[in-house]
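Dear support,

We are seeing what looks like truncated structure output for some complexes. This example has two components. We would appreciate it if you could run it in full and send us the complete token output so we can diff it against ours.
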Amino acid sequence: MKFSLARQALILAALSLLPGVGQAIYFRDKISWRSPIPPSEMVSVNQAREWADSAIWIDARPDEDFARNHVSGAISLNEDRWNELLPQFLAAWSPGKKVVVYCSAQSCDLAREVAERLRKEAQLPDVFVLDGGWEAWLKQKR
Amino acid sequence: MKTHILTFALSFIVCLTARAELKWEQTAVELHPARGDKQAIGHFKYQNAGKTPIHFKSVHASCGCTAAQSQKDQVAPGEKGEITATFNIGDRTGTQIKTVTVETDEAANQKTVLTLKAFIPQELEISPTFVFWKQGEKPDAKTITVRAGKDFDVKHIKVTSSSPDFQTKVEEIGQGQFKIDVHPNETGRLIASTLTIQSENSPKTFYATARITTAPTLPVAPAGQKVPAAPVAAPTPPARPTAPTGQTH
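Here is the complete output from our reference environment:
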């Protein structure tokens, strides 16, 4: 009886895994998830504030959001107008400066993508994504 | 034991059928916009396979670059419709994945995530797009590598510097690869240049930046001794030609 119960439990556990395994195989190329940003590429609001003038802040949100409000001194750089905005950012950058990229926490892929392009295409070091994004900044500011 | 497994299997199947009211033809769409396209549009078709009407509570895109629209707010039983997701390409390149989250008042399956995957053709891959010299540094040449993207046949490229303070020399390596050697005439002044890169027979323009920068910044003051970040205002950038309509890089 005892063996039978354990076997049933195992069979049920195995069955419960089947849909997940099936989905993982079937939708292998279709799932839109992206791996989380490594902690070494993120920075908290407090840490970024401590960097003070040795950091450049980039607002990766769309132009309308930037026009509405942004971190004081932040430079707008988004992929909608990358070619036009990049030189303005590069003019402010100098070796040794850290770069803090933020966007809205609800759609923070924008900051990740801008940070990735700066690292990969412009080959800039010390590019970080702000943890919690614009909302976290606002919360800390209060 | 067989009865237990059968009961479990049946309840599992019943659960699956009970929640499948709004049936999607596909929840992931792959798009291949042509060179110069400004937008990529994905259509996600659905049908209400249940017996009660379904209401859309919200349709929300993962980024401001994508606009998602539902044709209707309510879907009657048996009725078909679609969600349209319009992705503005802007200056994006490569593979772009955007999602649209659809919320309905269905009891069992309130949220559905629709995925739009766009492959934006990349004619030239430029690495790096930024070369710099520290002020006072020896004005040695720095190299930018240019490689033709997959499916593109590029035999020659033309490079133009916006400033006479920077010289460029293009070397054709072959197999769609090129080397651009860039060097400033001097590094005593804070000067910059926009390098315009064009491949033959293509109206598309690519850019790189060359700049003399200031020396590295001093170490940061200890925590609590300074006010929050107030970045230096960006100086006026070098004149960069306006990208032709339809630029996607």
